């Protein structure tokens, strides 16, 4: 006996030449940092959008400041100029981009006060926005004019003794003030979670910084041009540093050195119960070209 015919289930007919629509992945959120550069009697500000490995060399973005194109250069996207800087700094930045199934979003919250640390500390040269002041490091502060007295008082409490206030510098947005030569020496506890002056309360955390040299990649430098090793934070008389188990001491320029610290190979830096590794290697003839000036 022949089997009974079955009723086929519903099937969506295939459409030739068309692939099913791809579902975008969850947004990848990246940072936008504010960069400040001093010129001859002028200050220039720019926005630096974050970049990650695998992202396109060029991206069209939309959002704050309308439609823009980001172009990659030397391991990051090129600087973006500020349009109506005074308003943008207050309101913040929100950019979005999509490339096929991939989506990105760049965000910088608006505020009335910005702390910008030197590139040796924050990694963005000459000065880049940071969450808060860092002890014993050179910084600048950008704030609205209405906060002048509060900022000056907070800087004094943090042990900043030689800062200057500038209100008529070309390039500083209208209604904003620039505080230069800010170097806090005292740790300050935050008064409450939402205080607008919290970024002016330096933390006591000690951080190591590899300054200068010719960097090949993350924590790897040319052995002929090693970085200097410096620290920010509340470094007291009991602060101890070792490199490969050898005691390291502060030299005339403020950096720390030990026996063999700049020898070729992999090194172990210990300080304050923390350990960081760094490496120094010779340049090989078969290495690909790399941007020697990129220390960001």
Describe this structure in words.
The protein is mostly beta strands and 296 residues long. The protein is built from three helices and 23 strands. It has helices at 85-91, 119-122, 148-157; strands spanning 28-38, 43-49, 58-63, 68-73, 76-77, 80-81, 92-99, 102-109, 113-118, 127-130, 139-144, 164-166, 176-182, 207-211, 215-217, 220-222, 228-232, 241-243, 246-247, 249-250, 256-257, 265-271, 274-281. Strands 1, 2, 3, 4, 5, 6, 7, 8, 9, 10, 11, 12 and 13 form a 13-stranded mixed sheet that branches. A six-stranded mixed sheet has the order 15-16-23-22-18-19, with no helix packed on it. Strands 14-17 form a two-stranded antiparallel ribbon.
- Estimated structural class: mainly beta
Q: Give the radius of gyration.
A: 25 Å
What can be said about the biggest beta sheet? 13 strands, mixed
Measured distance between first and last alpha carbons: 79 Å
Show unreliable segments.
Answer: 6-16, 18-25, 289-296
Beta-strand share of residues: 35-45%
Shape: globular
Task: Classify the helix fraction into a percent range.
Answer: under 10%
DSSP summary, beta strand count: 23
The whole-number mean of residue pLDDT values reads 85
Number of helices: 3
- The oligomerization state is single chain
């Amino acid at each position: 006996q022949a089997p009974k015919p079955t009723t086929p289930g519903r099937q969506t007919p295939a459409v030739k030449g068309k692939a099913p629509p791809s579902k975008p992945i969850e947004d990848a959120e990246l940072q936008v940092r504010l960069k400040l550069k001093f010129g001859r009697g002028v200050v220039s500000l720019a926005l630096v959008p974050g970049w990650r490995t695998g992202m396109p060399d060029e991206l069209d973005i939309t959002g704050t400041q309308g439609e823009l194109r980001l172009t990659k250069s030397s391991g990051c996207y090129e600087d973006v100029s500020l349009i109506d800087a005074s308003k943008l700094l207050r309101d913040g930045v929100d950019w979005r981009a999509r490339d096929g199934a991939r989506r990105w979003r760049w965000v910088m919250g608006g505020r009335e006060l910005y702390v910008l640390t030197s590139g040796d500390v924050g990694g963005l040269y000459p000065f880049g926005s940071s969450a808060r002041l860092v002890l014993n490091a050179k910084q600048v502060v950008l704030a609205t004019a209405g906060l002048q007295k509060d900022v000056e008082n907070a800087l004094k409490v943090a042990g900043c003794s030689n800062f200057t206030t500038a209100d008529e510098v070309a390039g500083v947005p209208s209604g904003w003030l620039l505080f230069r030569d800010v170097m806090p020496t005292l740790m300050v506890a935050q008064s409450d979670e939402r205080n607008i002056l919290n970024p002016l309360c330096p933390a006591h955390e000690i951080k190591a910084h590899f300054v200068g040299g010719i960097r090949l990649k993350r924590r790897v430098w040319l052995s002929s041009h090693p970085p200097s090793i410096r620290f920010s934070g509340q470094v007291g008389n009991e602060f101890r540093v070792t490199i490969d188990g050898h005691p390291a001491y502060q030299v005339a320029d403020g950096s720390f050195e030990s026996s063999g610290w700049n020898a070729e190979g992999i090194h172990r830096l210990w300080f304050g119960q923390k350990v960081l590794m760094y490496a120094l290697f010779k340049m090989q003839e078969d290495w690909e070209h790399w941007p020697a000036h990129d220390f960001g």
